[in-house]
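Sample A.
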Amino acid sequence: MAGRFEGKVAFVTGGSRGIGKAIVQMFAEEGAKVAFIDLNEEALSGTTNELRDIGYEIYSKVANVSDTEQVETAVKEVYETFGSVDILVNNAGVIRDNLLFKMTDNDWQTVMDVHLKGSFNAARAVQKYMVENNYGRIISISSTSALGNRGQANYATAKAGLQGFTKTLAIELGKYGITANSVAPGFIETEMTKETASRIGISFDDLIHASVSQIPVGRSGKPEDIANAVAFFADEKSSFVNGQVIYVAGGPKN
C-alpha cells in the first residue's frame, strides 16, 4: 500500500535525533524521499545509515542552518537529486537556558540564529522550488515555551517568533499552493530535555515525573507525537489548513 507521501520530497532541518529523527522516519515510512541536514556529524551519519539499511531513499548533509550559503546549497542539491522539494520542516534547535541577568550575548544570539535565521534561510531557499511547482508545505517547530518560560527568554522569544513567521508565510505564499503551519510541542522526551534536567540539577526521571504531574493526559510526550502532527499539516489533503499553530502538549496551552 502506498504511503500518503509517496512521490513527495521532504526536507528536514536538524533531522538526526529526537523530534527531527522521528519526523524523518515518519516521512520515509510513508513513502517520501527524505533529505535532512544537521550539525552533528556523528548523529547524522548514524541516522542516515540506519535508514538506508532499511532501504529508504535518503539525502543527508552536515550543514549549519544559520549559514545561508550552506542551506541554499543543500536545498539545491536535494532538488537536483530528487527533482522537487515539496515539504520543509524547520526543526533545528538549540537551548542556551539561563535567567535574564545571567544570559550572555552569545546565549541570546545563538538561539536566534538557529531557530529564526535558520528557519528564514530554509524557507527562503525552498520557496522558489515550491512556487514553480505551485505546491508546498512549510512546517515550523515552535514550543509551548513561546507562551513564556522561566530561564528561557531567548528560546521563548525565538519560538514565539516562529509563530509570527509562520503566519506571515501563510499569507504571502498561500496563493501559490503553499501552506505554512507550526507545531508547538510541550514536554517531549528527547536529548534536549535531558540537557534541561542536567541544567537544573535533577535526574531525567524526576523531570519526567514532575512534568507528567502537570499534563492532563497523564503521560509525557514522545517524538512520534510531534511527527504525527507534522504529518497532518504536511498532508496533501490539508490544503485549507494554513497559518495555524497546534499545541501538542497533552492538554490546552493557549
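Sample B, a different protein:
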Amino acid sequence: MTKSETNMNNAYVSPGMPEIDMSGKSTSFFEFWPAWAMYTPVVIQSLLLSIRYRSLTLPLIANPKLPLSGMVGVGKSELFSQAEGVCHDSILAWTTVLRNEKSIDRQVTDALAKMKAHNLQFPVVGKPDIGCRGVGVKLLHNVEQLKACLATYPINSILLLQKLASFEAEAGIFFVRHPDQAEGKIVSLALKYTPYVVGDGVKTLKQLIETDPRASQLQHLYIERHKAHLDDVIAADQPFKLIFAASHSRGAIFRDANDLITPELNSAINKIMADLPEFYYGRMDIKFSDIEHLQRGEDLQIVEINSASSESLHIWDRKTPFLEAIRSLLFQYNTLFKLGAANRKRGYRPPKFKQLLAHWKLERSLTNHYPETD
C-alpha cells in the first residue's frame, strides 16, 4: 500500500486516484435524500421558466439531435453512434445485443460474434442501453456470466457491451456549450472514488462493512450485493472493492475537483465534444491514468456520456453546502431552458409532453428487469 492507503485518515484508493481524506463526517446531511426533496426547487423554477419561455418541454431540445435531449428513455448507443472523429475514438469500444425470441444459447452465440467483430474480449462491461444511475451494470468475466445477464433482459430490450477501461481512476466532467459559441467550458469536475474496505485477517467482510465509518451508514447498498462473501475473512491489508459501477446511488464517493480544471483539460474536452454533433449539455464519465494526465487532457477514455438529466457530481461531495448544491441544480436547469430557447430560434421544435411521458414509462418498465448492479 502507498502512504495514503495506510494513513488512518485516508481510505484505500484505486490506482491513479489521489488520496482521499475520510476523517470527519462521511456524508453530507442531504446526500442520500430522496430525489423529490432535492429537486423540488428545480420543479418550481422549471414551471416559472416554462411560463417565461412559453414551453414546458423546451429543455428537451437542448441537445437537438438526440431524442428528448437524452432526458429519459433514450439508448446510450443512440448517442454513441453519433460520435465522430476524436469523440468516437475516445469512447471505449462497444456493441449492442438485442434480446429477442431466439433461445438464450443462440443469443449468446450472436453476442460473441458481435464482440469479436468489435474486438471485445472478456472481461467486458455489460449495461442496459436504456437506463440511468448505474442500474444493471455488470462486469462480465465469461460466457456463463454473459448468458445469465442477458437472460434477465426482457424481449426487445438492448444490452450494451463495452470494453473494460485500461484505467481505474474516474472523473465526472460536466460540459456546456452555447450553440452560438465556438467553444464551451467545463462547469464541474468531480473525482469518482470506488469504496473499499481493507482486511485485517480477523474480521469478516460483514464486520468490516459494519465498522467502516462510511460503509456502515450505507450497508443497504453493500450487504445484499456481497451476501455470498459476508462471512469471508479478508486477509490482512487486502483491499475489497465494494462496488464496480462508480455511481452515487450505488455508494460511490464523490469529491469536488473543480480546482483541478486546467486550460489544457478544457481544450481537450472541447476537441472531443466538437465531434459530437449538436451536443451542448451533459456529463462525461471518464477514466484516466493519473491526475497529471487528466489535467493535461491526455489518454482520456470515455465510459459514458450523460445528457439532459445528468448532474454536476461535485454537489455530492460531503463538504458541498446544501445551498451550493441547490444553486448548481438550478443553474443546470436554467441552462437547459436557455439552450432550448437558442435551438428553438434555430428552427428546432420542442416535443410534446406525452413523448416524455412515454419514454419515462419505457425506462421505468425496463429497469424492473435488469440484473443487480455490480
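Observation for Sample B: The CA atoms of residues 99 and 157 lie 6 Å apart.
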